[in-house]
TrEMBL record:
Superkingdom field: Bacteria
Regions that span the bilayer: none
This protein's name: SRPBCC family protein
Highest classification ranks of the organism: Bacteria, Bacillati, Actinomycetota, Actinomycetes, Streptosporangiales
All copies of domain Coenzyme Q-binding protein COQ10 START, residue ranges: 110-230
Length: 262
């Protein structure tokens, strides 16, 4: 290879490398542009939702804005955490956490006959033996119950009155308490002779600082879901093994009055 041929080959290689570098930069620039575009759309969407959203939405907006402004992911995470804490405290101490009741709807399928599932549910005083947060249940009469449960690091007591109860179908109750109470309905649906669906609809009115904080993050819904799983486990590991020992209450209540006792 003479000098001219070698020089041409070297120059060609340099040109090819330069072209490849420019192409690589264009691809990288397009990738960055797409990321920035998506981030900008996210910021706009979160900004719109933040007007009606809770602390998590506002915190996510703060983190996205930090990234969009060129801050590191670590700084963006700090912005997220600080905003979440600030918004939560603001809602608590300004009364924003005392809004309307929390509506909780949960369901669970239990592998047992509907009658057995219903009978076990009516044994309210058994609840503390398998539900983690229920401390005690005292049934003063067929329609009157006194409850005590743990809420975070404290306890709450309330009284509930069953206003409607039909065997194997549903139970409806209302509650009174100084702080934090629960009204609700539980219904029982036979899917097959050995499979029952339990549908629980609660209206929870939180009371106290920690309950209002939990309300903001919907902690009560997760607790209800877990307690339903405890109920299912109890039915399928205890009640099914000795169904004859589960004597439920088979009476009826309408408008808060007992109309049939068995």
């Amino acid at each position: 290879m003479n000098f001219r041929t070698g020089f041409a080959a070297g120059a060609g290689g340099v040109l090819v490398a330069a072209a490849a570098g420019r192409a690589g930069r264009r691809v990288a620039d397009r990738g960055v542009a797409r990321f920035e575009s998506r981030l900008e759309r996210s910021v706009r969407r979160l900004a719109a939702e933040a007007e009606q959203g809770g602390p998590l939405v506002r915190a996510a907006l703060a983190g996205a804005r930090a990234l969009y402004d060129g801050k590191s992911p670590g700084r963006a995470l700090l912005s997220f955490g600080w905003t979440a804490l600030k918004e939560t405290l603001k809602r608590i101490f300004s009364g924003g956490g005392r809004g309307g009741p929390v509506n909780i709807v949960e369901q669970i399928d239990v592998g047992a006959p509907c009658r057995l599932v219903y009978d076990q549910w009516t044994r309210f005083e058994d609840f503390p033996s398998f539900m983690k947060k229920v401390v005690s249940v005292d049934q003063a009469s067929d329609e009157k119950l006194h409850w005590k449960a743990r809420i975070f690091w404290s306890s709450r007591t309330w009284r509930s009155t069953i206003v409607e109860q039909v065997p194997d179908r549903h139970i409806v109750w209302r509650s009174t308490a100084a702080r934090g109470r629960v009204d609700g309905t539980v219904s029982f649906h036979e899917l097959t002779p050995d499979l029952t669906r339990v549908l629980l609809v609660l209206e929870y009115r939180p009371g106290g600082l920690f309950e209002r904080t939990g309300n903001l993050w919907r902690a009560q819904g997760r607790r209800v879901r877990l307690e339903l799983k405890h109920f299912r486990r109890h039915v399928m590991t205890r009640s099914l093994t000795a169904p004859g020992g589960v004597e439920g209450w088979r009476g009826e209540i309408h408008d808060g009055e007992v109309v049939r006792t068995s």
